[in-house]
Amino acid sequence: MRWIILGVAALMAAGAVYFLVTSSQQGGAVPAAVQNVIAPDKPDVEILAAVTTVKVGSALTKDDLAWIGWGAADPPATFVRRDQRPEAITELETSIVRLEIAAGEPIVLEKLLPVGETSLIAARLGPGMRALAVRIDAESASGGFILPDDRVDVLLTREFTRVVGDGVEEQISTTDLVIGDVRVLAIDQAVAPPEGATALIGATATLEVAPADVEAVLLAERIGELTLSLRPISSEAAIAKAARRADPRVLAQGVRGRDSSKTEPAVRVYQGGIQGGANP
Question: CA 163 from chain center: how many Å?
Fold first, then answer.
């Protein structure tokens, strides 16, 4: 009797093994216990983020960075992952910040100047643009309220003598728009205002201009006084309308050669890109 029971148990075990083998060969469902062994849960991903707000021009320190959990989903390709770059905190230390990074914001390499590169202004320039420094003071720069990353219009004011009837001479002042909607890259060596500052007075302003505008600005600076006019936050349509620039050939014309019979305004005022004026 005992041998019969053992034989039946052996047959049952053999049948169970046969069932599992044939089920897997025929594409049958794999038991849950087997699934857990074959496909374990995907581990969470950690990404590098800023612990505190880091201003433009600041050098990163280890205390500014930390790894934070992202979850099992893959983060954007621009983020720094710990499993791909485990020494990133050490590697990025002393990198210069070219665009402000907020506290808790994931680190994106495009916002950093690589270690060893020192030209922050060059790194902040848009494709194909040029950096051009012009002389300013508190009066010519909106009382010092123009800050880096503001947008301005560059105006030229000049004085000349005009001959009217019977050889009478009169002094004329004109103001012309040289170039509009220009980004301010820096005031003196400051690429960002000090914490809490609303004004920044300097001797030079570095502007981001197109190559075609460099000649006009340099010529205007030689023949008159430049003024930076702070622009408001406007719609794209208003910006496009106001962003007209002077032809360098027009700026270079001799003021005495003007036709005095024409009643052109002595002062041109641009408001929202629309020219107005008043005769002297």
Answer: 50
Model's pTM, two decimal places? 0.55
Q: What's the average model confidence in pLDDT over 53-64?
A: 88
The pair of structure tokens assigned to 68 is 């934070």
Q: Give residue 44's pLDDT band: very low, low, confident or very high (50, 70, 90).
A: confident
Q: Is there a contact between 105 and 50 (Cβ–Cβ < 8 Å)?
A: yes
Nearest to 203 by CA among 152, 147, 133: 133
pLDDT digits (tens, 9 = 90+) for 196-236: 666 777 788 899 999 999 999 999 988 888 888 888 865 45
Query: How many CA atoms lie less than 13 Å away from 204 in the CB half-sphere?
Result: 12
Contact (CB, 8 A) for 242 and 125? no
CB 58 within 8 A of CB 66: no
| 37 contacts: CB under 8 Å, gap ≥ 6 | none
State whether the Cα torsion 243-247-252-254 is positive or negative. negative
Q: Which positions ≥6 away from 228 have C-beta within 8 Å?
A: 134, 136, 140, 141, 142, 146, 152, 153, 154, 155, 184, 205
Domains of the chain: 45-118 (3.90.1210.10), 126-273 (no CATH)
| SS3 label, residue 64 | helix
Percent of the chain with pLDDT over 70: 64
